[in-house]
Amino acid sequence: MRPRANLRLPARVRSTPQRRAGLDAIASATGAFTAAEIYDRARATAPKLGLATVYRTIELLRRAGSVRPLAGEGRPAYVRCRPGHHHHLVCVACGSVEETELCAAPPAAELARRYGFAADTHEVDFYGTCRRCA
Predict the structure, then answer these.
(1) Spans of all domains in the chain
(2) Within this chain, domains 17-80 and 87-128 share the same CATH topology
(3) How far apart are the first and last CA of the chain?
(4) Which of 41, 61, 102, 120 has the highest local Cβ count within 10 Å?
(5) Which residues have CB under 8 Å from 104's CB, separation 6+?
């Protein structure tokens, strides 16, 4: 289980009680989460919270690199992230998410040589069964 993250909004963004409730719900989430799940959790402490505020907060955190969308979940899901280059191991049985530095992407020089492509970034997530569920 990942330690509780101290998520912060960019300096130019106002911190309202509703937004703080959303941040706290995201910080306490383990594994993948949806905006609807965060909304439901955060409304316990901020009944006036709107779903649009949750989506905007997630987007702010995504731009800051603290949250990343997961493509293979079959539903719009997100995961908390640490800064820096890494990928995710996503368990399809229990929903746990683990970060890994292992990278299966080809080097930028190989992409340039073979395809004439200059990659800026990449995202790779692995979906399967974790050690506990195997």
Answers:
(1) 17-80, 87-128
(2) no
(3) 17
(4) 61
(5) 87, 124, 126
Q: For the segment 78-106, what is each residue's pLDDT rounded down to a tens digit?
A: 988 887 788 889 888 888 888 888 888 89
Q: What is the DSSP letter of 77?
A: E
Q: Sheet with 125-128: list strands edge to edge.
A: 97-100, 87-91, 125-128
For 9-44, the pLDDT digits (tens) are: 777 888 889 999 999 999 998 888 999 999 999 999
The two three-digit tokens of residue 22, written as one number: 């959303």
Task: Please tell me whether the overall predicted TM-score, pTM, comes out greater than 0.90 for this model.
Answer: no
Instruction: Give the Cα separation of 54 and 21 in Å (integer).
Output: 9
pLDDT tier at 54 (50, 70, 90 boundaries)?
very high
For the 87-128 domain, the top CATH level (class) is alpha beta
For residues 36-67, one letter each, b for 16 or more C-beta atoms within 10 angstroms of the residue's C-beta and e for the rest, the string is ebbbebbbeebeebeeebbbebbebbeeeebb
